[in-house]
Amino acid sequence: MRRETTNLIRFVLEDIVPPILRDSAAFHWLARRVWGEHITRLAAFRERAPFLTDEEYEMLYREHPRVHDGTDNSDACIDRIASDIVGDSICDVGCGTGALLQRIRALRPDITAMTGVDFVVDDAEAIENIKYVAARIEDLPFEDNSFDTVICTHVIEHLLDYRRAIAELRRVARKRVIIVVPREREYRYSFNPHFNFFPYTHSFLRAVHPSPRFHTCEDIGRDIYYCEDRPAEEPTEKPLKDQAA
């Protein structure tokens, strides 16, 4: 399923179906018909978020059905990411199978060094000039300013300590950080193992506070696209707008 399709489904579930129904036993019953008992495990997973062990966290993600073909990003977000990358080296944190890196390589053949990071990289596709590293985003095994551009898409919403994760992204980025998260509301019975929910762009701006002067934050088809220039490098060769949408 393409990201554009799931965003349309999310529009119906989040903006049309009222919360009193989304959190009801009737919706739970219907969701189980579509998603099986995994929908119940997801609800329990969020409720126990502060007490989960590393093993429980990893097991749920290993068992979670893959919804999207390849990448979780829409074509519009991929095009925007590729356009906003600066420098010769990039790191995709939360790379999954490496699908986004492959799309970027097709769009930006000028980028010579690509690294993908995820806590599980067993199923990442081996591609020439793409290096994979198994690590958690909260503790990246890289020196400060290791990459020109650091990318992190559809990851922050999954993390309990997301502020520490964002600090790590900024630490290893030399010129630019790009983050994409879904614009969504929280409900008891959700089809994703998300801990954090950002219904508006300004909701996410609170999460990344303080933002540097050169940044942009906008809605791209129900996904929040955030991009910032690192302060030590302001402005880069492709300066961002000084704004938040």
Question: What would you say this structure looks like, in words?
Answer:
The protein is an alpha/beta fold. The chain is built from nine helices and seven strands. α8 links the parallel β4 and β5. The longest helix is centred in the first third of the chain and has 14 residues. The model has no long low-confidence stretch (mean pLDDT 88).
Brief summary:
By secondary structure, this protein is of the alpha/beta class.
N to C succession of SSEs? HHHHHHEHEEEHEHEE
Please provide the count of β strands.
7
User: What is the rounded distance between the termini?
Assistant: 29 Å
Measured as a percent range, the helix fraction is 25-40%
Number of helices: 9
Under the CATH scheme, the architecture is: 3-Layer(aba) Sandwich
Strand order of the largest sheet: 3-2-1-4-5-7-6
Measured on Cα atoms, how large is the radius of gyration? 18 Å
Q: Mind describing the biggest β-sheet?
A: 7 strands, mixed
State the fourth-level CATH superfamily.
Vaccinia Virus protein VP39
Number of separate structural domains: 1
CATH topology: Rossmann fold
**Dominant shape:** globular
Low-confidence stretches: none
Q: Which CATH top level class fits? A: Alpha Beta
Structural class: alpha/beta
Provide mean pLDDT, rounded.
88
Strand content: 15-25%
